[in-house]
Design brief:
two-stranded antiparallel sheet, single chain, globular
Length: about 325
């Protein structure tokens, strides 16, 4: 159970209270990623002891979780040149050397992805007091995802809440509370701190896989972080947070009069990098096997200029 009741007015107040506008200067566009210092990167790199890489990304293909909700669809691979083209003589192949070429059509937030700081507006503003009108049909004129292209390499921590609670997955609508995060961290012997990337596994993907369907995953009810965790993430000075759910926060939302209220607090106010649709199942199995829940986390977005989100292939390196 959550420990507080929330209204839109309280969410707005909490956003102002946790606001990081101006903390790193009026021109800042990377928010809490400022907390990833050279020393923090070296701390993360020192966790590589086995030389093993675990990807935390879903494959980008037509079998993904999108159903058209919010205008998002699954990635579509389209071939521009193929072996059969060359075999048919179109184009000509006089030297015996042919090429294949391809393209991808997808919303940038169709699969495993980071929410950029131009993705979410609160009362007409995005992170660091920028007007939402600066995101135009030409893209984000400030706070574009390209600003953080070389910023996401740090110590990563996995909190597998489902395993900690002894269940294969948390049921949709289950809030992950501060008490859950702290008890899980204590149980696996880690502490979440300044400049860390926090990965929270609810088991929601495992549920979809067990049922053989993504039905309800995109935009439906889901376990996730509850509103009280915004203050905890702020106090711990976490640099980035990601979950295995479509929307990171618990759904149905805790407020009857607003939508995705934790997004309102974390992205435009705190400037916290938020990740969604991370595939944490294989990492969770690995961490349970060796008892090590911290690792070097390397997860840069693709630097699409002016984009407000980005796909990625996130690495947990042990």
């Amino acid at each position: 159970m959550t420990t507080q009741s929330w209204t839109l007015a309280r969410v707005m107040e909490e956003g102002r209270r946790l606001r990081n506008w101006g903390r790193w200067g009026a021109d800042d566009q990377i928010g809490t990623l400022n907390l990833i210092t050279p020393e923090k990167i070296k701390e993360g790199a020192a966790l590589v002891r086995q030389g093993r890489i675990i990807s935390c990304a879903l494959p980008y293909d037509a079998k993904g979780p999108q159903t058209g909700s919010g205008r998002r669809f699954n990635p579509m691979l389209r071939m521009m040149l193929t072996g059969t083209d060359f075999q048919a003589g179109t184009p000509e192949n006089p030297y015996g050397l042919g090429f294949a070429d391809d393209m991808i059509i997808m919303p940038l937030q169709a699969g495993t992805q980071w929410d950029g700081f131009g993705h979410c507006f609160a009362d007409g503003k995005m992170y660091n007091d920028r007007d939402m009108h600066l995101v135009t049909s030409q893209g984000a004129q400030v706070n574009g995802i390209e600003q953080v292209a070389d910023k996401v390499a740090t110590r990563g921590v996995l909190l597998d809440i489902a395993r900690f609670k002894g269940v294969p997955w948390l049921e949709p609508g289950t809030p992950v509370t501060i008490a859950d995060l702290e008890a899980c961290a204590t149980a696996v012997g880690v502490e979440v701190g300044r400049g860390d990337a926090l990965l929270v596994r609810t088991g929601h993907m495992a549920m979809c896989r067990a049922r053989g369907s993504w039905e309800g995953y995109a935009g439906g009810d889901a376990p996730g972080l509850c509103l009280e965790t915004g203050a905890w993430l702020h106090a711990r000075e976490v640099a980035a947070v990601a979950t295995d759910t479509w929307g990171m926060e618990v759904r149905p939302n805790e407020t009857p009069d607003t939508y995705q209220p934790l997004h309102r607090i974390l992205i435009p106010n705190m400037g916290l990098l938020v990740g969604e649709i991370f595939d944490l199942d294989r990492l969770a199995e690995d961490c349970a096997a060796d008892g090590v829940y911290e690792f070097f986390f390397v997860a840069p977005p693709l630097p699409f200029t002016g984009a407000v989100g980005s796909p990625l292939n996130a690495y947990a390196i042990k």
